[in-house]
Amino acid sequence: MRVADVAARGFGSASDAYERGRPSYPPEVVSCLAGGLAVASGSIVVEVAAGTGKLTRLLTPTGARVVAVEPVAAMREVLVEQVPGVPVLAGVAEALPLAGASVEAVVVAQAFHWFEVGPALAEAARVLRSGGGLAMVWNDRDVSVPWVAELSALIEWDDRPVASYHDGDWAGAVADVAAFGPLVHRRFRLDQELDVATLVDRVLSTSYIAARPRAEQAALADQVRRLVAGMPERFALPYRTDLYWCQRR
Q1: 45 is a domain residue
Q2: How many CB atoms are closer than 10 A to CB 55?
């Protein structure tokens, strides 16, 4: 089963920019996973589409035995450098390289909208032990802030040619899988402190932008620099972070 072409090309060519430019996640996310999914010392947690390990490095201090699954080779290479000691497997959400009923939690950050939802949920149910759980996390830029709305318009976010997590009926999709209980939702705030160079990396790590020709990327980078030319040297990019989780029956 193949990863979407734009994801494979974009993330494969921009793994370093992804690591430099992408934000982490609020600490409340891990607190909720510890309470809601019993992510704790000794539990086995598989993080699917782990990328460069942005969430992985927050999970490891819980003492859980984290296994990262990531389909893009360039992302796996960065993950190994950034989070040494965590087993990293090549694989996709729809065909996980894990035995049935072998893990306490399946966690997916910033990626479930790329999956074939039905098969991915079925695979999560297959590898989870009874009483375990599935969690999905997304950081979403807060476009109620005027300059962030301008940034989203600049990168044509509302007209992007790729899947969006806003398009998913996540509660409905989970309800269609008898193995899972109801979906719980929490929202948090996250401010990513950055400078202009980091913001440019954040933009250029966007999948459909990273897949564009280099000249187009350079022109867009110049536009981003002009947009924030009046900002302080360090400033905050605000996000709203959505966390969803459910239990395996």
Answers
A1: yes
A2: 24
Taking the whole predicted model, whether its pTM rises above 0.85 is answered as: yes
How large is the average pLDDT for residues 128-157?
97
Residue 26 lies in a domain: yes
Sheet of strand 65-69: strand arrangement: 88-89, 65-69, 44-48, 103-109, 128-141, 235-247, 184-194
Please tell me the predicted confidence (pLDDT) of residue 3.
57
DSSP 3: P
Interior CA angle at 127 toward 125 and 128, to 5°? 65
**Domain with 131 in it: what CATH number?**
3.40.50.150
Per the structure block, which two tokens stand in for 127?
Answer: 């590898």
pLDDT digits (tens, 9 = 90+) for 31-46: 999 999 989 999 999 9
Total domains in the fold of the chain:
1
Q: Residue 203 domain-assigned?
A: no
Backbone φ, ψ for residue 215 (5° rounding): -65, -40
Domain containing 112: what range? 5-142+162-192+239-247
Is 96 part of any domain?
A: yes
Q: How many CB atoms lie within 10 A of CB 186?
A: 15
Enumerate long-range contacts of 211-215, CB under 8 Å, 24 or more apart: 211/6, 211/9, 211/10, 211/13
Three-state SS for 89-108 is: ECCECCECCCCCCCEEEEEE
| Half-sphere exposure (Cβ direction) of 40: Cα atoms closer than 13 Å | 7
Mean pLDDT of the chain: 94
